[in-house]
Design a protein that fits this description.
heterodimer, A: mainly alpha, MetI-like fold, 2 domains, two-stranded antiparallel ribbon, 17 helices, 1% strand, flat, B: alpha/beta, D-Maltodextrin-Binding Protein, domain 2, 3 domains, five-stranded mixed β-sheet, four-stranded mixed β-sheet, globular
């Protein structure tokens, strides 16, 4: 045993590098080809399109193409940073992103913990299936449901009025203070069940002997959740958190675009909508690209920062 | 494993062949019917099904058909921007407000060498009018399909913007003379106080404002009409001084929005005005609950008049008629007769089209009288009958059938975004379209509208307005501003002005302190630098006047 680990099998066979490749390659041909395809896929679909970033520094015109358009340096970025609407949309994006991030984590973990405590297997499966169904609905359908439910003659207002909590229908979509929470609630409704799946999977891999030991020590249900399940989930939670911090600026497009209206535009527009309004609709593709680059840069910084923070705190890290 | 491989190879092969097949549109063998594709940056009033009957008859006669696709959400800019980003275009395209960008992107085929070859196309415009379509490079890239009059102007419908009101309201007050905005709202208030519900028992919505996306013209552009100017769309042109005037900052604009603000607090303006979608708005109008509103006829009437007919609710007087409302009862120009030339957009043929001659031939064939009759009237003896004098008419059953939405999509085929005439038919006695056939127009009107016309002593919707025509040679100026974008300082200002108005106008109407909100709005509006926009509009106005003077000089 000691002998085996001190020298790797490759050296033990005394094969040179090229001999080794010749011997092993035919056996692993499937792996080699598929990983090569994956790398090509990555280059073609993730790196080559980055050439398009050049347009952010040009006055890009489709007829002239990337190589024929006039170079204008950072003019588009300057336009962006001088534009009040851009900063307002950035604020909205970050606010909705952070609210979504926090709430979706709390609800998904909470839901997974609760679901894990359900004794009846049948009930558990039933609840889980029902709860992740909305994930498969298209955003258009979800927004239609939300818009209907919250309209002046919708279910929510009918309920509030029949309970006599309010005497007039609440115009949910014309009050600025409500919008971020409507978006957050919609996201939670749609994604909680789906997000909980990964935690449920992680929970099943927790060593049952820990729970048995806790039982012997007299721990109750909530104590077991608090002292065993949650700490065991910590690595999963942290990794997912780091990944998702990078998505804060992807707070959304469809939801805000469809649910928003002129009255609450100052809180509903996100960066993606800004790109649509000022980039695509105005045919200023350069400005749209510039905003996209800015968004990517901020996202990368956020991921690196959160990774570092986690590292310094002695926790899991992504890289 | 092996079966899986075979299946995946087969699937891949299938995808490749279908992709190749899809690229072959518009390039058929001999004797086959050509298939053209198209995209129109507008919302369809009717979507034609693939097995549409008249489309098949036309295809049989002219040897080609065109599959129409429409905007299903968002606006022209988004759709065309997305198409341009992909670089793939359908054979025919109408880019709407984004037509100029298609030209800039080099996506369109120049028409100059084809126009003379196709007599029906050439006939559609005078040489002077064709010249107005020329872009900076001197070529023509599209023709506008609407508003051209053959023979006599037989316009019956006011197909533009107005203050509309339900016939039941006018009837209740014995058809009063309404010429000012105050009288209009006063009438609505009084009616609503006396009759808070519809005859069917639902609560009235006294006045609603459509405000979704680009349709917010229903809120924002009334000040130009209230001051007695025609729909130049983005600006007022002072006829005497030939100067551009901004209608957003006129005293009339303030009075108008203050009135809306008052009526909002009086409960007359629908509180959902600014949050409703277009669909919600249309369903409100269709329910007959809305007493009045501002809109363009084409934006609501084609849909809801048919709903009233098929739901049998015309009897309650739900149909709308326009009123000649101005700020102080002065002459109005809500209606501008004679067909207006919109050079800013139209049907174009793209560089992706593989059979350009075929495409022009298709447009040309669609303008043959026989095909025009099929497009506008339908199949003889099925959709219309001809009497002993050669006059076309429809029986009551035919009228009802042609208003049915299912029949419209499976049987009738208007090719509505291809060039079409209005006015008199080439036979000299009929109208090009049923809606303008005098006998038929009258016969298909709901009784409430007939009563209303009789009470006011008029025959058509247009006459309800008593519009005068003062529009200049530059009219309409919106055909220029619609094409502006952020590539010029004025276009950037124009976009910012729009954003500012979108955000502030609802606040102005809903505000509890109108004066303070109005001042804040005016301050925010000034920050968008509207003067840059107005300067570019003035330049265009001068160019158009110069252009016309040059033309006159060349004629004499």
């Amino acid at each position: 045993m000691a002998n085996y680990t001190s020298a790797s099998p490759m050296l033990g066979n005394k094969l040179s590098r090229s001999q080794h490749i010749r011997k092993e390659a035919p056996k692993q041909i499937f792996l080699l080809v598929s990983s090569a395809l994956l790398i090509i896929y990555g280059i073609v679909f993730y790196y080559i399109p980055l050439v398009g970033w050049l347009t952010a520094f040009q006055n890009y015109q489709p007829a002239k193409g990337i190589f024929g358009s006039e170079w204008i340096g950072f003019a588009k970025f300057k336009f962006l940073f001088d534009d009040k609407t851009f900063w307002q949309d950035l604020r909205n994006t970050i606010a909705m992103g952070v609210i979504n991030l926090v709430l979706s984590f709390v609800t998904a973990i909470g839901f997974a913990l609760l679901l894990n405590e359900v004794r009846s297997m049948l009930a558990k499966r039933f609840i889980q299936t029902i709860s992740y169904m909305p994930h498969f609905l298209s955003m258009i359908i979800v927004t239609a449901i939300v818009h209907d439910a919250l309209s002046s003659e919708g279910a929510v207002n009918e309920l509030l009025m029949s309970l006599k909590w309010v005497d007039q229908a609440i115009p949910f979509f014309s009050i600025k203070g409500y919008f971020w929470w409507i978006v957050a609630f919609t996201n939670i409704w749609k994604e909680t069940g789906w997000n909980a799946i990964i935690y449920l999977a992680a929970i099943t891999s927790i060593d049952p002997s820990l729970y048995e030991a806790a039982d012997i020590d007299g721990a109750g249900r909530f104590q077991k959740m608090w002292y065993i399940t949650l700490p065991s989930l910590k690595p999963t939670i942290i990794i997912l958190l780091i990944i998702n911090v990078g998505n804060v600026l992807n707070a959304g497009f469809e939801l805000q675009y469809i649910l928003g209206n002129d009255v609450i535009r100052s809180v509903s527009d996100t960066i993606d909508i800004y790109v649509l309004r000022w980039g695509i609709k105005q045919f200023d593709f350069s400005l749209g690209t510039a905003a996209g680059i800015f968004k990517s840069a901020v996202s990368i910084i956020l991921v690196v920062l959160s990774n570092q923070v986690s590292k310094w705190a002695g926790e899991e890290k992504l890289f | 494993m092996k079966t899986k491989k075979i299946v995946s190879v087969a699937l891949a092969a299938l995808m490749v062949t279908s992709a190749v097949a899809a690229c072959n549109g518009g390039k058929p063998g001999a004797g086959e019917i050509k298939e053209f594709s198209s995209f129109f940056a507008a919302t369809a009033t009717t979507t034609i099904t693939d097995d549409n009957e008249i489309q098949a008859i036309i295809a049989e006669k002219v040897g080609a058909r065109c599959k129409e696709t429409w905007l299903t959400g968002g606006d022209a800019g988004e759709a065309i921007g997305t198409l341009m980003a992909s670089g793939q275009y359908p054979d025919f395209i109408n880019g709407g407000d984004a037509s100029k960008q298609l030209y800039d992107a080099g996506a369109l085929v120049a028409w100059d060498e084809y126009i003379d070859k196709y007599p029906n196309i050439k006939e559609f415009y005078s040489d002077y009018d064709w010249d107005q379509f020329r872009q900076e490079d001197g070529h023509i890239y599209w023709m506008n399909p609407f508003d051209q009059i053959y023979g006599q102007d037989m316009t019956t419908e006011h197909s533009a913007e107005a203050f509309w009101i339900q016939c039941r309201v006018l009837e209740w007050d014995n058809y009063p003379t309404i010429t000012t905005m105050d009288e209009y709202f006063d009438l609505i208030e009084r009616y609503n106080a006396a009759n808070p519900t519809t005859p069917e028992g639902a609560a009235n919505i006294p006045y609603t404002i459509l405000c979704e996306d680009w349709r917010y013209f229903c809120l924002e552009n009334a000040p130009q009409f209230l001051d007695g100017y025609p729909n130049d769309g983005s600006v007022i042109v002072d006829v005497d001084t030939e100067q551009i005037v901004d209608y957003n900052t006129t005293p009339t604009a303030r009075v108008y929005f203050q009135k809306l603000n008052e009526e909002y607090h009086n409960g007359i303006v629908d509180p959902e005005s600014f949050t409703q979608t277009y669909d919600e708005y249309i369903s409100k109008l269709s329910s007959g609950r809305v007493l009045g509103f501002i809109d363009q006829w084409w934006d609501f009437a084609y849909t809801i008049n048919d709903v009233f007919k098929s739901n049998d609710t015309e009897q309650y007087g739900y149909n709308y008629v326009p009123l000649p409302v101005t700020i102080d009862g002065r002459d109005n120009q809500w209606n501008t007769p004679g067909g207006q030339l919109n050079v800013s957009s139209g049907i174009a043929i793209t560089t992706s089209c593989k059979d350009v001659e075929g495409a022009f031939k298709f447009i040309n064939d669609l303008l043959d009288q026989e095909i025009l009759d099929l497009r506008n009237w339908g199949v003889k003896d099925v959709d219309y009958c001809v009497d002993e004098n050669g006059l076309y008419y429809r029986t009551d059953a035919q009228v009802a059938q042609c208003a049915d939405s299912n029949y419209k999509s499976t049987h009738l085929c208007g090719y509505s975004y291809f060039p079409n005439w209005s006015g008199t038919s080439r036979d000299g006695i009929n109208a090009m379209t049923p809606g303008q056939q005098p006998s038929l127009f009258r016969a298909t009107l709901p009784q409430s509208v007939v009563d209303c016309f009789d009470a006011y002593g008029v025959d058509t919707y247009v006459e309800m307005l008593h519009s005068v025509d003062n529009s200049g040679v530059w009219f309409p100026m919106w055909s220029y501003s619609n094409n502006m974008n952020t590539s010029t300082p004025g276009g950037t200002a124009w976009t910012r002005m729009g954003e500012c108005k979108h955000q502030w106008l609802p606040e102005v109407v809903m505000s509890d302190d109108f004066d303070a909100t109005w001042d804040a709005y005016m301050a925010a509006y000034a920050e968008t630098e509207p003067e840059l926009f107005l300067a570019e509009m003035q330049e265009e106005l001068d160019r158009r006047i110069q252009n016309y003077n040059d033309f006159l000089a060349s004629q004499s």
